Structure formats: structure tokens, C-alpha cells
Amino acid sequence: xxxxxxxxxxxxxxxxxxxxxxxxxxxxxxxxxxxxxxxxxxxxxxxxxxxxxxxxxxxxxxxxxxxxxxxxxxxxxxxxxxxxxxxxxxxxxxxxxxxxxxxxxxxxxxxxxxxxxxxxxxxxxxxxxxxxxxxxxxxxxxxxxxxxxxxxxxxxxxxxxxxxxxxxxxxxxxxxxxxxxxxxxxxxxxxxxxxxxxxxxxxxxxxxxxxxxxxxxxxxxxxxxxxxxxxxxxxxxxxxxxxxxxxxxxxxxxxxxxxxxxxxxxxxxxxxxxxxxxxxxxxxxxxxxxxxxxxxxxxxxxxxxxxxxxxxxxxxxxxxxxxxxxxxxxxxxxxxxxxxxxxxxxxxxxxxxxxxxxxxxxxxxxxxxxxxxxxxxxxxxxxxxxxxxxxxxxxxxxx
Length: 399
Fold this sequence. Notes:
0% strand
């Protein structure tokens, strides 16, 4: 939850751009600085965790995260803020490279889907609480509080981790080996690649919400940040409910059907968002966001279960890193791609210079609609790719 509580900063994007006198497109560096660092280090951190102990690396990750939160919260310039996000990304890489492995190694292979469903549910709780908590903090204390409130929990969890969680040390013959990529059979390799690609596409599509919805809620609908946080909460409530159920169900019927269904539902929700306008009411917007969340919850747990099950249990740090890396890769693509698309479409819709500047916010709305429609298209493309999978992974490889 500490990592997924990073969603608290999203509702503060308008306040951050105003504080540093930035264009909307510049906010992508707050995202990319964190997420690209996170993604780049995941595989290496997972391999180190397999060799040196998952609990130990988790504690280090929490300490580095605390440093990153502090740097962001006290940043006097935008460059300082981005630097703090890079430090935060390094800490997140250590956390997310080890957490799935700790969960997977705590249960038998037959219970993996259910356990990872609970893990995804806890992630979703953080994503759900983050925008609401962030909105409240921004309205009362300002955007810096969305970083600083996590310093104390990070330090507490680091101490708890050091004292309570297992290190899962490998036998000596494994410790002498250099960390290496696991070898998959030819039969499993294409499905493994598809499962990871689907995760990238799903997260790229959904980040259109995380990046641009705050601007729609605050600048177009003129809601306060706290109300915007409650709206973003709608996405994750359904994810929280769907993830453990989908994970448990995947242990019985397999992953492909549930993953495809989740992508279809997510695409439907993004299409509903593309129909929004300047008079969209609160409940209609919350409904569309809830449909997206339902699709995410149905997709993510079965898909992660497949990825984790494709790699031997002795290398679950690497397996968890691969699965976790797909989300930040999707977010990097989304942050960059949706920013560029939004800026391009906004220029297309910009009125001539002779038109009064009072209509400027009207330009934002059609640009947002185009972005959400494109995100829905990515989900439906991913759905077609998912339906091309003909076989399910055999659990016996992880026994």
C-alpha cells in the first residue's frame, strides 16, 4: 500500500504545475522520473533479492523511499522535485521487486492465484485511498503534504520488515551462482511474452485517467481537490472487490478468459469516459471510472498469476520483478504518449487569436475526449491479442 499510495500525488498535478509555473505537458517528468527509474531497476533488484534475501531488500527499499518522499516534499525547484522522484523510484524498485516474491513463496502453487489476488487488492486499496487522502491534504496543507505524509510509515515499515519478515535465503549452491534469467520452454515463452505485453497495454491505457482526469475534474468541472479524490476513488473500489475474486477464480478456470474479460470491461469504461462533457454529473463520471476499475481488477490478478507461475520458485524475485516492471513501462508510455496526444489535439482545437481567451478551457475538453477514446482503442487491441492465446500455463513448472 505504501507504494500504491503514490496515487495521492495525481490529484495534486494542477497545484504542482501552478506552483512551478509549468505547462500541463511538463508534469510528465514527475511521472517519468519516478516510473522510468522504477522500471529500469526492477530486474536487477529482483535478482539481488533472490540472492541476498527478499526481506532484507524490502527493508532497504522502504528506507530509500523515505529519503525520496522527503526530497520531494521539501523541493524548492522543479528539478529538485524530479530528482526526489528518481530517488523514490529506486526505493519503489526494491519494494515491488520483493513483495510479489514474498507473497508467492508464502503459499503453495495451487493457492498462488488467490494469494496474488489479495496482494493486488492491497495495492488497489492504496491506489483508492491515495487520491482521496491526497485531495484532503492538498486542500488543507498543500501539495507537498502528499509526499511528506509517507515518510513516517516508510520508516516504521522498514523497522517492522527488518524484525519480522523472512529473508528467504537460497541454498549455498544457489548463492554462488550469478543471478540469471530463468529459462522458459518454447511452448510457454510466447504466452509469457503476450501476458507481459498485455500488462503494458492495460496500464498504458488506464494511465490516461491518472494523468489527465485531475485536470478535467478541477479545471473543467471546477470541483475541489477533495471531491476529485473521491471520484478517482471510484476506479479502485471495484478493483479492490474484483481482484481477490478474479485471482481465486483463476486457480480454477485459468487466466486467459478472465484476462480477456477484464480488458473488454476496461475498454468499455474508457469509452464511457470519452463521452464526458462540461456538464457531466458526479454519478455518471463515477460510474465510468468504476467500470474501468472493475476491468482492471478482473485482468491484473489472473495475468500476474500466469507470469509468476511461468518461472521456478527459486527465482521468484526475478518473476515478481518482470511482472511488476510491466506496470511502470505502461505508465511511462502512457505519461509520454497521452501528454503528446493531449497537447497535439489541444493545438488542433485551439481557436484563432481573435477569439477571447475566456474560451481556453473549452479546448481542453475535446482533447481529453480524444485521449480517452484512444485509450479505449488500446484496450480493445489488447483484448484481440489476449484472445489469440490458445493454451494455459501448466502449474507443474512451479512445484
